[in-house]
Amino acid sequence: MVDKMVFESYGTQKHYKSHVESTTYLLRPIKYSAPDNIISNNIGTNIHTDKSFLTILRQTEVNGLEVQLKNGEWISVDVPPGSFVVMSGDAYQAWSNGRIHAARHQVIMKEDKERYCLALFSFNHGTTNIPKELVDSDHPLQFNPFDNFGLVHFYLNSATQMSESSAKAYCGVNVEF
Predict the structure, then answer these.
(1) Contact 91, 98 (CB under 8 A)
(2) Which segments constitute the Fe2OG dioxygenase domain (predicted)?
């Protein structure tokens, strides 16, 4: 449903069916251990962006997710019980020609309880092209066609893990193949 809303909002509906047909999902249960000392913030995950198109999170009552705003400030995401968090990843940033930004986030453990969540990641098989509808004089082409799993492999096997954008490092127009 989220993908459909995105495609419709950008006038790219004609690409929606092929996008859905090439999408695969990874459901991952995640456990964050309770910190040894709750006085200091304990990092559950380092700062990162997901390499997926979308990530949908469902967590238990223990919060800890923090998202970085455009101005660089970090905010805690207090998720009401029974709610989901939807975040865009690097693949959506590349597909949208930079119009959608990948959510930089981390988990900080501030409670003396374990944190559990389920993360559903969506990935596309094959080559993903940037829709022509998203390239114009105000939005020149920023990304080359890319392979979503190639992006994941690139991230895991390169020194770009701490870079601002894995997508730009992997398939940005200034990247030579």
Answers:
(1) no
(2) 22-126
Render 89-117 in DSSP notation, one character per residue: -HHHHHHTTTSSPP--EEEEE-SSS-EEE
The answer to the question of residue 18 being in a domain is: no
Residue-wise pLDDT for 78-123, tens only, equals: 988 889 999 999 999 999 999 999 999 999 888 888 899 999 999 9
Residue pair 120/25 in contact (Cβ under 8 Å)? The answer is yes
Q: What does the alpha-carbon distance between residue 139 and residue 125 come to, in Å, rounded to a whole number?
A: 26
* CA dist., res. 71 & res. 49, Å (int): 16
Residue 11 corresponds to which tokens in the numbers above?
């006038």
Residue 69 lies in a domain: yes
